[in-house]
């Protein structure tokens, strides 16, 4: 009985910690700054879309939104492509080489990306890749490849080896086995990893802040900072921009929800 009470209390506290700030942000998109400062928890006087019209009126969100889409889509695509190929090679390797490769990628998870800030910035300046969306894509691929390999390799190792051996006896080479058998079977794991990577890349602030100075190359997280002034902050516009920036992640999760759940539960039941 005591356990149920404690569990219910903790779950209720956690739900309130999520619902209350989210409600303030959503309601704040329909309020003026004065309403937010005076009555942050109250309903808006009128549910209008003036903040959204103002946000898109001067086009200040269109270019950063496009940049974030470009960086996120290409980063996730190439990371999944490289990670799936590496993971297939590691899972199929029966020698010590596969274990060493997996160990090296796992070691990459233990190294915080913030440690590499100075070397990355110096290297990108020398290669003239700063203020470049291509540079951001390269950074995202390098930083998210270890976790992607770690996740997808675990799934590939659970696939029946007899299936690959049969395909090999029929004359299929490694590329054909990867493309026609392994990759379709790994779709749930790849889809779940893709959603995970998209959220990380879409919300990344550190490397765009470090590498991007030109306004035409800014991503959405950088633009959200611009709504914070030195002496005052327009919370109505900031909340509206946050909601707009969150829409792609929500849409992607809704569309790929089945793959995400399947990827999380893959390998949980065997037999």
Brief overview:
The protein has 271 residues and is mainly α. It is built from 14 helices and no strands.
Number of strands: 0
Q: What is the chain-wise order of helices and strands?
A: HHHHHHHHHHHHHH
Low-confidence runs of at least 5 consecutive residues? 267-271
Could you tell me the strand content as a percent range?
Answer: under 5%
The CATH H-level homologous superfamily: MetI-like
Q: Distance N terminus to C terminus?
A: 36 Å
Radius of gyration: 23 Å
What oligomeric arrangement do these chains adopt?
A: single chain
User: Level of helix content?
Assistant: over 70%
> Would you tell me which CATH topology applies?
MetI-like fold
What class would the helix/strand composition place it in?
mainly alpha
- Overall body shape: globular
What is the typical, i.e. mean, pLDDT? Answer: 82
Q: For the record, what CATH class applies? A: Mainly Alpha
Whole-number count of domains? 1
Number of helices: 14
CATH architecture: Orthogonal Bundle
Q: Major β-sheet, in short? A: none
């Amino acid at each position: 009985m005591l356990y149920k009470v404690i569990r219910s209390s903790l779950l209720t506290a956690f739900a309130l910690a999520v619902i209350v700030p989210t409600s303030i942000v959503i309601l704040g998109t329909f309020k003026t700054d004065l309403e937010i400062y005076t009555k942050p928890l109250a309903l808006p006087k009128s549910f209008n879309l003036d903040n959204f019209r103002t946000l898109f009126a001067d086009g200040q969100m269109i270019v950063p939104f496009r940049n974030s889409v470009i960086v996120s889509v290409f980063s996730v695509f190439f990371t999944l492509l490289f990670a799936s190929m590496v993971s297939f090679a590691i899972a199929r390797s029966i020698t010590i080489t596969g274990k060493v490769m997996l160990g090296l990628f796992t070691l990459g998870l233990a190294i915080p990306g913030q440690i590499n800030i100075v070397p990355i910035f110096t290297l990108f300046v020398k290669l003239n890749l700063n203020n470049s969306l291509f540079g951001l894509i390269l950074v995202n691929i390098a930083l998210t490849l270890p976790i992607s390999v770690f996740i997808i390799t675990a799934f590939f190792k659970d696939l029946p080896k007899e299936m690959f051996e049969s395909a090999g006896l029929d004359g299929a080479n490694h590329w054909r086995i990867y493309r026609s058998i392994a990759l379709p079977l790994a779709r749930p794991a790849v889809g779940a990893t893709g959603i995970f990577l998209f959220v990380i890349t879409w919300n990344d602030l550190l490397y765009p802040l470090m590498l991007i100075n030109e306004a035409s190359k800014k991503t959405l997280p950088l633009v959200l900072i611009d709504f914070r002034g030195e002496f005052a902050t327009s919370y109505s516009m900031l909340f509206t921009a946050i909601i707009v920036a969150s829409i792609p992640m929500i849409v992607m999760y809704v569309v790929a929800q089945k793959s995400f759940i399947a990827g999380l539960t893959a390998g949980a039941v065997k037999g």
